[in-house]
C-alpha cells in the first residue's frame, strides 16, 4: 500500500458513515495541509476497493451536486486490519529512531 | 451559492474527464461550497491527466495504433504542408499577418484531420488518445524551437518562442476538437 493509499484508507475510517470524495479529500487536506485532487482520491479508492480493503455503494443524487450521485465508501474488516498493520509497521520504524522521537 | 462550473472547465470534464459521475458531482459540490476557480481547474487538470494515463494503460494496443496513425498522417501532412508553403511563398509574401493566418489555418486544419482520424479509430477514447498525441508532439516542438531560435537574430528569438507556443496551442486545440467531433456525444450527462 502506498503512502497516499494509506492516507485515503485512514481518512475513510476517520470520516465514518458518509465517506465519499469530498469529506475524504477534506480530511486528508486538513491532516497534510496540501490541496488534494479528488480524482487522485478516487483512483486510490478504486485500487483499495480492488484489493478488498474498502467497499462502496451509490448514494442519492442531490441538487448541490448538479443531480449527481455520491459513491460512499466504507473500510472492510480487511481494510481496518491493513490500516492497523501499516500503522504498526510505521511505529516500529519510528521507535527505531530515538533521536527523531526526542526532537518531536 | 454559485450555479455552474466555469463553462470551459465543465466542457472539458464532460468530454475528457473520467466516466465516474461521483467525481464530477464532488467537484460541483465543492465549487458550490465556495472553492475557487483555480481549485476547479486543478481538479480538471488532474482528472483529465489521470484519465488519459488510465486509458493509455488500459487500452495499450488501441492507443499505440492511434498514436502511430496520428504520427504517420501528421508527418505526411507536415511534409505536404511544407511543400505548399514553399509554393505559396514563391507567389506571395508570407512574412506579414496574411502569412501568419495562412500558416495557422493550415496547421489547425491538418491537426483537425489528425484528431478526427484518431477519434474515429480509437472510439470511444479518441479525445484521450488525441491528448497523448499532443503531449508526444511537445518535445519535437521544443527541439524545433530551440534549433530555429539558435539560428535566428537576437531580436527575433522571442517571436520564435511565441510562435512555437502558439503553434502548439493550435495543434492541441485542433487535434482534441477533431477527436471530440469524431467521438460524438459526451459519455455522460451534460453539467449545464
Question: How would you describe this structure to a colleague?
Answer:
The complex is a heterodimer of chains A (104) and B (192). Chain A has 104 residues and is mainly alpha-helical. Chain A has a single domain, classed as Arc Repressor Mutant, subunit A. Chain A is 61% helix and 10% strand. Chain A has 5 helices and 2 strands; from the N terminus they run αααββαα. Chain A has a two-stranded antiparallel ribbon with strand order 1-2. The longest helix of chain A has 19 residues, at 77-95. Chain B has 2 domains: 7-56, no CATH class; 60-183, no CATH class. Chain B is mostly helical. The two termini of chain B are 15 Å apart. The A-B interface holds A 20-22, 25, 35, 37-40, 42-43, 58, 61-62, 64-71 and B 1, 17-18, 20-30, 32-33, 39, 42-43, 46-47, 50-51, 54, 189, 191.
Structure, briefly:
Chain A has helices spanning 3-15, 21-32, 38-50, 77-95, 98-103, and strands at 54-58, 71-75.
Key words describing this protein structure:
heterodimer; A: 104 residues; mainly alpha; Arc Repressor Mutant, subunit A; two-stranded antiparallel ribbon; 2 strands; elongated; B: 192 residues; 2 domains; 7 helices
What shape does the CA trace of chain B take?
globular
Q: For the terminal residues of chain B, how far apart are their CA atoms?
A: 15 Å
Number of domains of chain B: 2
Roughly what is the average pLDDT of chain A, rounded to an integer?
Answer: 87
Broad CATH class of chain A: Mainly Alpha
* Low-confidence runs of at least 5 consecutive residues of chain B: 188-192
Large-scale geometry of chain A = elongated
Instruction: Report the CATH superfamily of chain A.
Output: Winged helix-like DNA-binding domain superfamily/Winged helix DNA-binding domain
Q: Reading side by side through the largest sheet of chain A, how are the strands ordered?
A: 1-2
Radius of gyration of chain A, in angstroms, nearest whole number? 15 Å
Q: Element order, helices and strands of chain A? A: HHHEEHH
Main sheet attributes: strand count, strand direction, barrel closure of chain B = none
Largest interface: A-B, 22 and 26 residues
So how many helices of chain B?
A: 7
- Give the % helix of chain B: over 70%
How many beta-strand elements of chain A?
Answer: 2
